């Protein structure tokens, strides 16, 4: 009798899924901690926090905390608390961001502030920040406490800076990069620096992983800002046009404004951003201007630079499957479609 060949396992479709599968046992411990630390005698706190945490999300920041540790130590359980702390910081910033941006959608469903109100969202965000610092203190590393507390302050600065340049057509690309370096890349960098710190690696290795996280975070955010103006993203189920409606000065808009020559094009950006007079067809016109000026490709070229810098940052590490997954993750940040 001829035996049937064993079924081949289908590999994950992207390196983020690969990372999630590889680190699944660790993430199970992290998720258990997250649920445990969300408990409160005030019912609204776990209800609201749990709503956002359970709403999806790729858990990329805690995964990077785990990965940056497993590169050097396959057994220690120290990253569990710290990965949970990183996720709490991230979730708290989302709660606060949605209030500031007056968002009514998050990950394809009603935002927490739309359901529970702005006041509750802000206060539960504060609760999660506090819980994150409890977890850091329990770990006992002053270095880690310094890394994550500094990142938290930088994130807040980035939010304020973004608010100050919102709807401002004279915003330049350096200001935009300063915003996303603070709002997005700072926590990516911190998450990746934790591993080499708690496993006792050299300052050079620590800086390399920090640089990797920074540039991956930059690439993810820049590419995401392009997706917000691409109709193909909507076809894949991703919400588009949020940045346009909120008047956020992202790279595609900045480059399109710089390239605008026709009076009508300049007047369009003034009306929609400065005067905040947006009609139903304006998003499509903005997409056409961005695409026609090459602003979308110029933005992707910028993301590509950060992708390459992220990959270069890992040159000092010995070869391993986990390193290769992290290298692929940098490419995924650039090439993902949703």
Summarize the helices and strands and which ones pair or pack.
Blueprint: H1 15-22, H2 24-37, H3 44-53, H4 60-70, H5 78-100, E1 105-106, E2 109-110, H6 112-116, H7 118-139, H8 142-165, H9 173-198, H10 203-227, H11 231-235, H12 242-246, H13 251-259, H14 263-274, H15 282-293, H16 295-313, H17 321-335
Helix pairs in contact: 1-17, 2-5, 3-7, 4-5, 4-9, 5-7, 5-8, 5-9, 7-8, 8-9, 9-10, 10-16, 10-17, 13-15, 13-16, 16-17
* SSE arrangement, N to C: HHHHHEEHHHHHHHHHHHH
Q: Which percent band covers the strand fraction?
A: under 5%
And the CATH topology?
Farnesyl Diphosphate Synthase
Indicate how many domains the architecture comprises: 1
Cα Rg = 21 Å
Arithmetic mean pLDDT = 90
Keywords, separated by commas or semicolons:
338 residues, mainly alpha, Farnesyl Diphosphate Synthase, 17 helices, 2 strands, globular
């Amino acid at each position: 009798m001829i035996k049937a060949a064993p079924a081949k396992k289908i590999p994950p479709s992207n390196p983020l899924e690969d990372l999630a599968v590889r680190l699944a046992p660790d993430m199970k411990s992290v998720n258990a901690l997250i649920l445990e630390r969300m408990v409160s005698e005030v019912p609204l706190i776990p209800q609201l926090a749990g709503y956002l945490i359970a709403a999806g999300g790729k858990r990329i920041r805690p995964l990077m905390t785990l990965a940056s540790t497993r590169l050097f130590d396959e057994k220690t359980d120290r990253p569990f608390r710290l990965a949970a702390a990183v996720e709490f910081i991230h979730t708290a910033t989302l709660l606060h961001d949605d209030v500031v941006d007056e968002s009514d959608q998050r990950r394809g469903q009603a935002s927490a502030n739309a359901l529970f109100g702005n006041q509750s969202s802000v206060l539960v965000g504060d609760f999660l920040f506090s819980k994150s610092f409890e977890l850091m203190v329990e770990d006992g590393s002053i270095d880690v406490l310094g890394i994550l507390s500094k990142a938290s302050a930088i994130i807040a600065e980035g939010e304020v800076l973004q608010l100050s340049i919102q709807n401002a057509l004279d915003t330049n690309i350096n200001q935009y990069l300063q915003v996303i370096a603070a709002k997005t890349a700072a926590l990516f960098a911190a998450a990746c620096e934790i591993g080499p710190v708690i496993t006792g690696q050299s300052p050079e290795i620590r800086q390399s992983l920090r640089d990797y996280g920074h540039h991956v975070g930059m690439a993810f955010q820049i590419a995401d800002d392009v997706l917000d103006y691409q109709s193909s993203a909507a076809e894949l189920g991703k919400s588009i046009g949020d940045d346009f409606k909120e008047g956020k000065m992202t790279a595609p808009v900045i480059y399109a404004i710089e390239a605008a020559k026709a009076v009508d094009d300049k007047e369009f950006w003034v009306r929609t951003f400065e005067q905040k007079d947006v009609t139903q067809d304006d998003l499509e016109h903005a997409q056409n201007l961005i695409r026609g000026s090459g602003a979308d490709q110029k933005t992707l070229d910028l993301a590509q630079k950060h992708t390459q810098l992220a990959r270069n940052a890992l040159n000092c590490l010995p070869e391993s499957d986990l390193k290769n997954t992290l290298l692929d993750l940098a490419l995924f940040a650039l090439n993902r479609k949703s």
